[in-house]
Design goal:
Elements: E1 2-3, E2 6-7, E3 12-16, H1 19-29, H2 34-49, H3 52-55, H4 67-75, E4 88-91, E5 100-101, H5 103-112, H6 125-139, E6 151-157, E7 162-171, E8 175-179, H7 188-196, H8 201-207, E9 213-217, E10 219-225, H9 227-240, H10 246-257, E11 264-271, E12 274-277, E13 294-295, H11 302-310, E14 315-317, H12 320-327, H13 330-338, E15 342-350, E16 353-362, H14 372-406, H15 414-429, E17 439-453, H16 456-486, H17 489-507, H18 513-535, H19 537-549, H20 560-589, E18 593-599, E19 601-608, H21 620-644, E20 654-660, E21 665-670, E22 675-678, H22 684-692, E23 710-715, H23 718-733, E24 737-745, E25 756-762, H24 770-779
Parallel strand pairs: 3-9, 20-23
Antiparallel strand pairs: 1-2, 4-5, 4-10, 6-7, 7-10, 8-9, 11-12, 11-16, 12-13, 14-15, 15-16, 17-19, 17-20, 17-21, 18-19, 21-22, 23-25, 24-25
C-alpha cells in the first residue's frame, strides 16, 4: 500500500472495483422502469468493454486506461444537479488519490492555486495499519471498535487570504473485505485481547497479517467545511495556551469565521466607569490608542450607554460617518478618526459581570452588520470566560509577586502591596527594568505586647547541663570499667578529662561548653568505644545501653532539654493560636497591621492609623478600642497559661508586658530584609525600648520590672498612664485583674531615659467571658 508517498505494510490488498454499483445497474436493467433500464444498460456497455471494472484493478496507475468508463460510472454516484454544491471525491479504498471529483471540489482546488495533496495528520504507519483492522473487525466480523479520529485538512483560498478547514467523512458502503488464505478468523476472545492491547502493534499484525485480506470497491469521501467550528476551537486553544502571538491568532480565526481576514479586532477594558485599552502589550483596541480613555457617561451618547451597559447588548455601527452625524459624541468622533467605516462593540459578560468589550472594525460601510453578530455569538462567550480567567490569573500573579518580593503580608495592608505589584508587573510587560519599591505607611500608632518565659536562658542552660552531666557520667562508668580490666594510661587520661568537664558543668554552662564536650566525645571517646566493644562482652553491652540513651538525631542525651523544649513549644502553640484567633475578631473593629513572633514565649506588634486602610475613616477612638482589646487579650493569655501549667513537663513561668507609645510612627517595609521596620532615627527609639525594656529593673533596686502573674505597662507620658489606669480599673471590675496598681520608675536604659511602668497582678480566680467583653468593647461602652 502507498501511504503518504511511500510503500508501507498493510493488512489488505487494495482493488478498485465498481461491483456494487454494477450489481445495482444490472437489477435496474431487468426492471420494469424502461427509462432507468435504458440508462443502466448504457452504463453496463462500458463494463462489457472492461470486465475488470467489476472484478477489480490492483494497479491504480493503470486506471487512466479506463478513465472514460470510470467517469461515466462515477456520474451515477455524483448527481449532476448536486455536483456544484457537494464537496465529494471518489477514491480507491484507503488510497486517498481522487479518481473522480465534484465540480465544487475542483473549484476549491483551483482557488488554492496548488495541486491537491492529502496527508492524514497525526496518523503514522502503525495507526494507519490499525485503522484498516478496525474496519475489518466492524464490517466483516461485526465487532464494534473505536480508535479512529476525525480527519481534518486545510486548503488555502488565495482570494480570501487564508486556509479553509475541511472535515473528511468516508462512505465505505461500495467496498468490501475478502479474506485470503492468510486471513485469521477473529474470535470473541481475540477481539477482547485486541481491545485490551490497543498499543501492541505486534499483536495486531499477528491477528491481521500483512496482505491477508482484499479490500475491493471504491470509497466516497465527503468534505464538510468546518472553518467556523475550527476557528472557534483555535480561539479557545489560543486563549487557554499563552503564547506571544496568541492575540494575532485569535484575530485571524475571527476573520476566518467572518470570511474576511482584513477586519481589525480588539478588546477594551472597563475600569472606574471608563473604557480603556487592555493593559497588555499584545492586545490592541480598534477604537483607543495607549493612554486614551472614554468616560462612559460623558463621552458616549445615552443610546450607546443603554445598549452596552444597561442591556449589555452589542452596538452595531454600519456607517460610522452617519453615526457621528447623529451622535456627535467624543466616542463617535474618535470612531470616525480611526478611518473605519463600520464597527461592532460587543459586551464581554461572565456570570452577569461586565468585564469589557470585544471590537470589530472594517474599512467598508455595511460590511459589519447585525448579520455578523450570529457568528460572534459563538466567540463572545469564550472570550468573556477567558477575560475573567486572565483577571483571575493576574490577581494570582500579583499574589505571587507579593509572596516573592515581600514574603507573607498581613491582610490589612495587602491592598497596598497589590497596587505596587500591579505596577511592577505592567512595567515588566513592556520590557522595562523595574524593582519592587519600598512601601511606607505614615502616621501609625504602635502597640507592642509580649508574654515572655522568665529565665528562659538560665532554664535551658540548666537543662543542657543536667543532660550533659548524665551523659558524661554514663561515659565515665564505661571507661572506669574498661580501666579496671586493662589499666591503660590512655583510659586514665580520658577519665581525667571527663572529671574536668563534669566539674565545669556543675559550676556553670559557659559559651561553647556543649560543643567542646560533644566534640571530645566524638573525636576521643567514641573511637575507643569501638575498640572496647571487641575487647569485652561486658563493655559491649554497656556501650550498647549507652547508645540507647542518646537521641538518634542529636547524637547526645536529650531528656531534660526535651522536657523544657516540649513545655515551651506547648506554651507557644497555645498562646499563639489563641492570639491569632482573637486577632481575626479585632480586625472587624478596625483594620490594623498585626504580626506575631514565637520566641521563648510570644510577642506581637500592631499598627493602626488612616494609611493602613483604603476604605475606612480612622478615629482615635479605634486606637483606644485596640488598646483595651490588647490588654484584655493579655489577661486571657495569662489565664490560658495558668490552666496549661498542669500539662507542662518542666516548671516554666511567664511574664507579660505592654509598651505604650503615643507618638505616631512611619512604618517601612524593607524590600532587602522583607520585613516591616520603623522609619527614621527618632522613631528608632521605639525599637530600642522594645528590645531592652523587658530586662529593665525598678529604679534603685535589682528587681526586674516583669514578674510572673503580673502584667506590666511601660509608658513615658503621664497622659498614657491615666488612660491605662481607667482600663485597668475596668478589667479589675470584670474580674481579670487585682485592684492594686503599682506605678514605678525604671532604671535608665542605654539611650532611653524617664520610663515608668504600671504593674498589676492577674486575677486567676475567673473573669467574665471574653466574648461577652469584646461585644461590650465593640459597642463602645467599655471606654466609659
Amino acid at each position: 500500500m502507498i501511504y503518504n508517498g511511500k510503500e508501507v505494510e498493510f493488512p489488505a490488498i487494495m482493488q478498485v472495483s465498481f461491483f456494487k454499483l454494477i450489481d445495482q445497474l444490472e437489477e435496474l436493467a431487468e426492471g420494469k422502469d424502461t427509462g432507468r433500464a435504458a440508462y443502466a444498460k448504457g452504463l453496463l456497455k462500458e463494463v462489457e468493454k472492461y470486465p475488470e471494472l467489476k472484478e477489480g484493478i490492483s494497479d491504480v496507475t493503470k486506471l487512466k486506461k479506463y478513465q472514460k468508463s470510470v467517469d461515466k460510472l462515477s456520474e451515477a454516484l455524483f448527481p449532476p444537479v448536486l455536483t456544484t454544491n457537494e464537496i465529494k471525491i471518489l477514491t480507491p479504498p484507503f488510497y486517498f488519490q481522487p479518481i473522480y471529483t465534484s465540480k465544487r471540489f475542483d473549484n476549491i482546488v483551483e482557488a488554492s492555486g496548488e495541486p491537491f495533496e492529502f496527508t492524514m495528520k497525526d496518523v503514522d504507519e502503525d495507526l494507519f495499519y490499525k485503522y484498516c483492522c478496525y474496519f475489518i473487525m466492524g464490517s466483516y466480523f461485526g465487532y464494534p471498535i473505536g480508535g479512529s479520529t476525525p480527519q481534518f485538512f486545510e486548503i488555502e483560498n488565495r482570494a480570501q487570504g487564508f486556509k479553509r478547514t475541511y472535515k473528511m467523512l468516508i462512505n465505505a458502503e461500495l467496498s468490501e473485505f475478502i479474506p485470503t488464505e492468510k486471513a485469521i478468523q477473529i474470535t470473541e476472545k481475540d477481539y477482547h485481547e485486541l481491545v485490551d492491547n490497543f498499543d501492541n502493534m505486534e499483536l495486531w499484525k499477528k491477528k491481521f497479517p500483512p496482505n491477508s485480506w482484499i479490500m475491493r470497491g471504491v470509497n466516497i469521501i465527503n468534505l464538510v467545511d468546518v472553518t467556523a467550528d475550527q476557528s472557534i476551537g483555535n480561539i479557545t486553544s489560543n486563549l487557554l495556551v499563552k503564547s506571544d502571538n496568541a492575540f494575532a491568532n485569535i484575530k485571524q480565526s475571527v476573520g476566518r469565521m467572518l470570511n474576511n481576514t482584513s477586519l481589525s479586532i480588539g478588546v477594551i477594558s472597563l475600569e472606574n466607569n471608563k473604557l480603556i485599552p487592555v493593559d497588555h502589550k499584545d492586545v490592541e483596541s480598534v477604537l483607543l490608542n495607549d493612554g486614551e480613555s472614554l468616560h462612559c457617561e460623558k463621552d458616549l451618547c445615552p443610546r450607546t450607554c443603554s445598549e452596552l451597559f444597561t442591556n449589555k447588548e452589542p452596538l452595531v455601527v454600519t456607517d460610522t460617518d452617519l453615526f457621528h452625524e447623529l451622535s456627535g459624541t467624543a466616542m463617535s468622533q474618535k470612531l470616525k478618526d480611526t478611518g473605519f467605516k463600520s464597527y461592532i462593540i460587543a459586551p464581554l459578560v461572565h456570570e452577569d459581570e461586565l468585564l469589557g468589550f470585544m471590537e470589530l472594525g472594517s474599512k467598508n460601510k455595511y460590511e459589519l452588520n447585525k448579520g455578523s453578530l450570529h457568528m460572534l455569538d459563538h466567540v463572545v462567550p469564550i472570550i468573556s470566560m477567558a477575560k475573567k480567567r486572565f483577571q483571575t490569573e493576574e490577581q494570582n500573579l500579583v499574589e505571587a509577586v507579593i509572596q516573592q518580593e515581600c514574603t507573607t503580608i498581613h491582610s490589612s495592608v495587602k491592598w497596598r502591596f497589590e497596587e505596587e505589584a500591579l505596577k511592577f508587573i505592567k512595567t515588566q510587560e513592556v520590557g522595562e527594568e523595574t524593582e519592587f519599591k519600598d512601601i511606607v505607611f505614615d502616621n501609625l500608632y504602635p502597640l507592642y505586647g509580649q508574654l515572655d518565659i522568665k529565665g528562659s536562658s538560665e532554664r535551658r542552660n540548666s537543662a543542657v547541663s543536667k543532660d550533659l552531666i548524665k551523659q558524661l557520667n554514663a561515659v565515665t562508668k564505661i571507661i572506669t570499667t574498661a580501666n579496671k580490666q586493662n589499666q591503660l594510661p590512655v583510659l586514665e587520661e580520658l577519665l581525667h578529662r571527663l572529671d574536668g568537664f563534669t566539674d565545669e558543668l556543675k559550676k556553670n554552662l559557659a559559651a561553647g561548653s556543649e560543643h567542646r564536650i560533644l566534640s571530645f566525645l566524638k573525636d576521643d571517646v567514641y573511637p575507643v568505644f569501638e575498640y572496647l566493644k571487641n575487647d569485652s562482652s561486658e563493655l559491649k553491652t554497656q556501650i550498647e545501653n549507652y547508645d540507647k540513651l542518646l537521641d538518634p538525631e542529636l547524637g547526645s542525651l536529650y531528656e531534660e532539654r526535651k522536657k523544657y523544649d516540649t513545655s515551651v513549644n506547648l506554651i507557644n502553640q497555645r498562646l499563639a493560636s489563641y492570639l491569632d484567633k482573637m486577632q481575626i475578631e479585632a480586625q472587624k473593629m478596625f483594620p490594623h497591621y498585626f504580626e506575631r513572633y514565637k520566641t521563648d514565649g510570644v510577642e506581637f506588634n500592631m499598627y493602626i492609623g488612616q494609611s493602613i486602610t483604603n476604605n475606612r475613616i480612622f478615629n482615635e477612638m479605634y486606637l483606644r478600642n485596640l488598646r483595651i482589646w490588647q490588654l484584655l487579650v493579655m489577661c486571657e493569655m495569662e489565664n490560658e497559661f495558668h490552666s496549661l501549667r498542669k500539662e507542662l513537663t518542666a516548671p516554666v513561668e511567664i511574664a507579660s508586658l505592654i509598651l505604650v507609645y503615643s507618638t505616631p510612627l512611619s512604618v517601612h517595609f524593607r524590600m532587602d530584609e522583607k520585613k516591616f521596620d520603623v522609619e527614621g532615627a527618632y522613631n528608632a527609639r521605639y525599637e530600642i525600648i522594645k528590645k531592652r525594656v523587658d530586662k529593665a529593673h525598678i529604679k534603685g533596686t535589682k528587681e526586674r520590672i516583669t514578674q510572673p502573674g503580673h502584667i506590666v505597662i511601660v509608658y513615658s507620658q503621664e497622659q498614657d498612664a491615666n488612660e491605662y489606669r481607667i482600663y485597668l480599673e475596668f478589667l479589675a471590675s470584670k474580674g481579670y485583674l487585682k485592684s492594686k496598681i503599682e506605678d514605678v520608675a525604671l532604671e535608665d536604659l542605654q539611650g532611653v531615659h524617664g520610663l515608668r511602668a504600671l504593674r498589676v497582678a492577674v486575677d486567676y480566680a475567673g473573669a467574665v467571658g471574653v466574648d461577652e467583653l469584646i461585644r461590650e468593647i465593640e459597642k463602645g461602652t467599655s471606654a466609659k
